[in-house]
């Protein structure tokens, strides 16, 4: 992944402790929310739905606690 021209620099910055760009955080949280929502639509059990929602909340929490990279 580090050799990819569009993703490599972001991964290197993240691994160096510089954080994630604000736009990347927004995109990740949006995609996570959409994925959880679609999953909830197809899951039959309320127990499994609860587990999926909990996993989504943990994912959003993890993304939000990462440092936000400023500048470009």
Written description of the protein model:
This protein has 72 residues and is mainly α. The protein has a domain at 20-69. Helix content is 68%, strand content 6%. It contains three helices and two strands; from the N terminus they run αβααβ. A two-stranded parallel sheet has the order 1-2. Helix 2 (22-42) runs antiparallel to helix 3 (46-65). It is elongated and about 40 Å long.
Element layout with pairings:
Elements: H1 8-15, E1 20-21, H2 22-42, H3 46-65, E2 68-69
Parallel strand pairs: 1-2
Helix pairs in contact: 2-3
By oligomeric state, this entry counts as single chain
Average predicted confidence as pLDDT: 92
| Binned strand content | 5-15%
Order of helices and strands: HEHHE
Task: Using brief descriptors, characterize the structure shown.
single chain; 72 residues; mainly alpha; two-stranded parallel ribbon; 3 helices; 2 strands; 68% helix
């Amino acid at each position: 992944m580090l050799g990819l021209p569009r993703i490599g620099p972001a991964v290197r910055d993240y691994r160096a402790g510089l954080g994630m760009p604000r736009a990347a955080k927004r995109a990740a949280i949006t995609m996570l929310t959409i994925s959880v929502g679609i999953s909830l639509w197809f899951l039959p059990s309320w127990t499994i739905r609860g587990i999926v929602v909990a996993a989504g909340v943990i994912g959003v929490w993890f993304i939000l606690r990462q440092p936000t990279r400023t500048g470009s």
